[in-house]
Design the sequence.
């Protein structure tokens, strides 16, 4: 693991909150975030996290805050949401700075780090499907160096390594997937039937992916 | 409001609640499937666990209400059982105390008076010690066997408090029990004990069996349960199923946009629960004929005056066909909403005048239906 170049991860507030309190192999997810990823966030994420402190249950919000404080990046060139992010929208919002401010800020962070070759790629982690549909997917198409993940992808990524290292088993990772989807459903969204069915489908797809991971990991067992 | 359409105001309900009776319209194959399950429940001593899966508004809750009302009202013996005891509850909504919530919903649906009456019946047929012994054998819990074998009008309130997980030290001492019900396992045993009373104790004259038909609605809500609450809940539910195996039919309603996707459903319910499911009812997407039969029977049932109008009234034949086409492959609830929205739209439109006895022509439906469909699709209808 010492020789491993960590993946760069730009983490959104909703994903931090959804990943909070989830354990894998007797460690919380923050442990793995430190170990597997170079995390970067914009200043807005810390402010949003402070505002949603009631949704972070596992630990003091200050713990996340101190973790993020050394990982906060303020872009020096890409500073304007309207000019940088606006073009990725099919219908840009009339005002920038309030709605999706965290995603916009993080997107500028990812683009600046990428274009200044500070990093080779960025994984943009967000569970905000609306933001993904509104501009992130379009940005991803223009900048293939940016990949868009959900919190469940983080669990699959970490889970695959832990399965290989025998620090977690299939059911543990499946439990963590259930936890992350449950957190996403209960902490943020209205519980509409459509949302519920979407969550059931996504969770099922993630478990299917986990089964494929298990098959590959089993090669080390034979 | 719908009088001029020769229909009662509540002709197109969105949910089955709030009606004096629960009628069944159309969907004859589906009805027959349930009928077969309930016939099998009455003639065989076996555990039946049925998974009813369908889209939102397909009629799962309606089926639960309809068949519960139908079988609860039967006073004659049903097969080898003296009666059916249908119970309809929703799945728990508070993951952190899910099983306590589940048992509270169940006990309240049964009513504590009915539990006390069943206990009384069995005391009359045997004695309190014999009842204690059989409840102890069924549950393995001295506390639960003690409380349920002695429940009567005098101690109804403290016993109720105990079964709901409460009770002061003094109340518990007076009931002869050592501690409150605390974990999922203890609540599961309490349910097993209560179901034992209901199965065996519904006759004062002789020991006779009753069949429990327990419908649990909205099982898909388990998707909101984090693992630390999900596992104890499903474990306790399995305990109840396995301990009440011969005389209970458990109906699990599961709402899902892809009801054929069984692996996705298993992912939510868990493998152990799914292994206990031995029958499936799938609420298929209705075709044009299903919807036609449904709407014709619904209109007939809700007529203010059934004597002098066509079966499709207030819609002209071709207008009726257009409505059906618009709602085909949707759900009965969607069709109800569409009809309700259309009639209200016409009712509130000062430019539209329908002379008594005249039908709504296709052209009027054609003009209005795109807007109403858009509203319904957005969920604003």
Sequence:
């Amino acid at each position: 693991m010492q020789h491993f170049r960590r993946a760069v991860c730009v983490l959104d507030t909703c994903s931090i909150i959804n990943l909070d309190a989830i354990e894998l192999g007797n460690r919380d997810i923050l442990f793995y975030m430190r170990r597997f990823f170079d995390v970067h966030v914009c200043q807005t994420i810390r402010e949003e996290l402070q505002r949603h402190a009631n949704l972070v249950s596992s630990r003091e919000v200050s713990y996340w805050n101190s973790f993020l404080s050394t990982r906060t990046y303020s872009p020096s060139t890409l500073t304007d949401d309207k000019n940088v992010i606006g073009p990725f929208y099919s219908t840009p919002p009339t005002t920038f700075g309030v709605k999706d401010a965290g995603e916009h800020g993080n997107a500028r962070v990812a683009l600046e780090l990428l274009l200044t070759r500070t990093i080779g790629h960025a994984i943009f982690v967000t569970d905000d499907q609306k933001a993904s549909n509104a501009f992130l997917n379009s940005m991803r198409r223009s900048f293939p160096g940016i990949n868009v993940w959900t919190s469940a992808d983080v669990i699959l990524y970490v889970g695959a390594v832990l399965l290989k290292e025998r620090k977690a088993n299939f059911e543990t990772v499946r439990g963590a997937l259930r936890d992350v989807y449950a957190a996403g459903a209960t902490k943020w969204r209205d519980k509409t039937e459509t949302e519920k069915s979407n969550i059931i489908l996504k969770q099922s797809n993630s478990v299917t992916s986990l089964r494929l991971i298990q098959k590959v990991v089993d090669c080390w067992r034979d | 409001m719908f009088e001029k359409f020769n229909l009662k105001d509540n002709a197109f309900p969105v949910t089955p609640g709030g009606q004096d009776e629960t009628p069944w319209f159309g969907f004859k194959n589906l009805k027959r499937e349930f009928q077969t399950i309930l016939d099998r429940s009455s003639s065989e001593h076996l555990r039946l666990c049925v998974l009813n899966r369908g889209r939102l508004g397909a009629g799962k809750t309606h089926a639960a209400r309809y068949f519960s009302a139908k079988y609860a009202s039967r006073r004659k013996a049903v097969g080898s059982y003296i009666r059916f005891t249908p119970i309809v509850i929703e799945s728990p909504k508070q993951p952190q105390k899910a099983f306590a919530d589940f048992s509270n919903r169940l006990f309240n649906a049964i009513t504590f008076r009915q539990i006390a009456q069943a206990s009384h019946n069995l005391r009359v047929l045997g004695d309190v010690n014999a009842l204690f012994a059989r409840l102890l054998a069924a549950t393995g819990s001295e506390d639960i066997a003690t409380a349920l074998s002695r429940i009567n009008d005098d101690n109804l309130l403290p016993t109720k408090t105990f079964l709901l997980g409460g009770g002061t030290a003094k109340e518990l001492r007076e009931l002869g029990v050592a501690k409150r019900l605390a974990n999922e396992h203890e609540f599961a045993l309490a349910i097993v004990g209560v179901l034992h009373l209901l199965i065996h104790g519904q006759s004062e004259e002789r020991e006779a069996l009753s069949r429990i038909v327990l419908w649990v609605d909205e099982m898909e809500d388990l998707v909101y349960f984090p693992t630390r609450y999900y596992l104890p809940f499903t474990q306790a539910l399995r305990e109840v199923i396995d301990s009440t195996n011969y005389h209970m039919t458990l109906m699990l309603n599961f709402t899902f946009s892809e009801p054929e996707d069984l692996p996705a459903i298993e992912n939510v319910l868990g493998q152990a629960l799914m292994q206990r499911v031995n029958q499936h009812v799938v609420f298929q997407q209705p075709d044009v004929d299903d919807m036609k039969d449904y709407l014709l029977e619904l209109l007939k049932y809700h007529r203010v005056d059934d004597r002098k109008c066509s079966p499709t009234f207030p819609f002209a034949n071709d207008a009726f066909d257009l409505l059906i086409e618009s709602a085909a492959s949707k759900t009965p609830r969607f069709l109800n909403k569409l009809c309700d929205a259309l009639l209200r739209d016409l009712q509130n439109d000062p430019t539209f005048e329908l002379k008594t006895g005249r039908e709504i022509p296709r052209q009027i439906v054609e003009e209005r239906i795109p807007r109403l469909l858009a509203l319904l699709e957005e969920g604003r209808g």
About this structure: The radius of gyration of chain B is 24 Å. Residues 184-200 of chain B form the longest helix (17 residues). Chain B has two domains: 3-16+286-377, 28-283. The longest strand of chain B covers residues 83-90.
